[in-house]
Amino acid sequence: MSHPFFSFNRQWRGKCFVCNQDYPEYNTGKLLCEHCKGTYQTHPFFTEVSSKLHHYFATVLPETDVKKDLLLQNFSDTFLRKESGRKKWGKDVLKKSFPSLTPLPCGQPALVKMDKLADFSGFKQVWTLDASPYIWSGTYKDLRSLAILSKAIEHNIRHLALWTAGNAGYSLAKMVHRHNATVSDKSQRKTVYCLVGDFAPPEIVVTLRSLQYRVAPISTGKGAILSREHMYNVVASMAGDNISQEGYWQVTDGWDGIGTFMYSLLAQQAFYFLKSELEQSAELKSANIYIVLPLGTGNCLLGFIKAMNRVGEGRAKIISAMPYEDNMMSFLKEKTGEAINGRTKMRRNEPEAEKLTGFYSPLSPCLYTLWQKSNPAKDGYDFSDFGQVEFVSVDRSEQIEAAARILGYSEFLVASEPSALVSFGALKTLAEKVGDNLGNSVALVVNSGFGLMGIKEQEFFTKSIFAFR
Ligand SMILES: [Zn+2]
Fold first, then answer.
1. Ligand 1 centre distance from Cα of residue 230 (Å)
2. What is the 26 CA–ligand 1 centroid distance (Å)?
3. pLDDT at 142 over 60
4. Contact by Cβ (8 Å): 368, 330
5. Whole-angstrom distance between the N-terminal and C-terminal Cα of the chain?
6. Ordered structural domains, the chain, with CATH
7. CA angle 458-462-466, nearest 5°?
8. What's the 60 CA to ligand 1 centre distance in angstroms?
9. From ligand 1's centre to the CA of 336, what distance in Å?
10. Which of 321, 327, 368, 432 is deepest in the core (most CB within 10 A)?
11. Cα–Cα distance between 327 and 345 in angstroms, integer?
């Protein structure tokens, strides 16, 4: 059974992240670019499923134009606010691209200067783009969920399915739960199906179920991944035969496409705002900006890369922070060995965040391409090349050190879960790499927030940083 798909409205187009091929329309059924699939399918990571790559992976992402003027506004929701000026409703940015934008609020990120982190790391200034004030999951996934729900309303999609046991599912479930309570017409209600691995912590499954999520734990065995066809068949068996007529969209983090678009808007705005802050200092007017963000599934990372290609003026370099060994870039291992940052790393006995350790991301081909370009083992590799993304592996001790710095502050509380702290943990290694140019450099750390955690992750806060609080 082939899963149903739909096209976004005409003002949207698709663009392949790997080869930049344009597609005149963005269709949720055709997400793998025909033109470049040969470039990575011979790699061992992809060969296992190479005949059906399009069932697993995506490289084509949706795009539409948003005016720069809109992103420079002072907002009261969804996007950033400035210190002064009349506030606009943040979703004014999105009105044209999302004709059926949900009226639900989203919460608001903040751009915060963190002086003590500058002292700690050696950067001239350190800023945090803090996503923890988003109201649904307390993470930047809320921005993605807002876009998914709005598109689902526009195209009358009633069934949303995803493979997750983390914040992507939690965020969408909470927002859809609220949406369902606000519409009187039953046909406008949505159902969210969450497929989780049998490793998913029971407390998270219970939370998702409490939001009237349809949760199906699937025993896939370690390392297995689920294709879009598999997922559809599981969901169809739960939903009944009407699913194809009632609209279906698979929005596993990375399949949605639209998350990357939303993150790119936020990234552009953060760059504009930070730039205007730096212009107030003669010394830092043209400073280099290092943007550190968690690897996750790559959805946010790709959004920031797209944004900086567009507005970064060649002075913003993207740094992807990932937990040492416990990350989805399994194809990196053969190249990096044990000492990824040039020294021995401290690994946890067990990963505390299962959501970080699965190696499957629909965006793997895109991440693989980025990795190939930035491979430190390559001749002629140059850290000061601002067009290249840097991958920094962060170990347990760095994460704990960062936790103490972030969570020990009383002046401003940034809520940051273990997976988010990885970005802060990368600061010191990054400062070493920047070396002599530190005096002309600032760092912007993206804090993904503090969302749904299993017991093992919660232990990080009761044990790991016990000494500091
Ligand atoms: Zn392509």
1. 25
2. 14
3. yes
4. no
5. 54
6. 102-139+257-468 (3.40.50.1100)
7. 145
8. 7
9. 26
10. 321
11. 14
pTM for the whole structure = 0.91
Quick one: pLDDT band at residue 102, thresholds 50, 70, 90?
A: very high
What is the phi/psi pair of residue 413, to 5°?
-100, 110
Report strand pairing: 316-323 vs 13-16: unpaired
Cα(227) to ligand 1 centroid in Å equals 20
Q: Per mean pLDDT, which range of 69-83, 151-165, 181-195, 318-332 is the poorest?
A: 318-332
**Res 351: pLDDT:** 44
Ligand 1: centre distance to CA 305 (Å): 16
C-alpha 369 – ligand 1 centre gap (Å): 11
The tokens for 335 are 């190249």
Structure tokens, 294: 């968690």
- Amino acid present at 63: E
Q: In the prediction, which pLDDT does 133 show?
A: 92
Contacts of 106 (CB under 8 A, 6+ apart): 77, 78, 90, 91, 134, 135, 136, 142, 143, 146
Cα–ligand 1 centroid distance for 317 (angstroms): 23
* CA dist., res. 2 & res. 110, Å (int): 42
Q: CB within 8 A of 36, min separation 6: which ones?
A: 16, 18, 19, 21, 59
Give 295's Cβ-side CA count (13 Å radius).
34
Q: How far, in Å, from the CA of 285 to the mean position of ligand 1?
A: 37
Q: Distance from the CA of 364 to the center of ligand 1, in angstroms?
A: 13
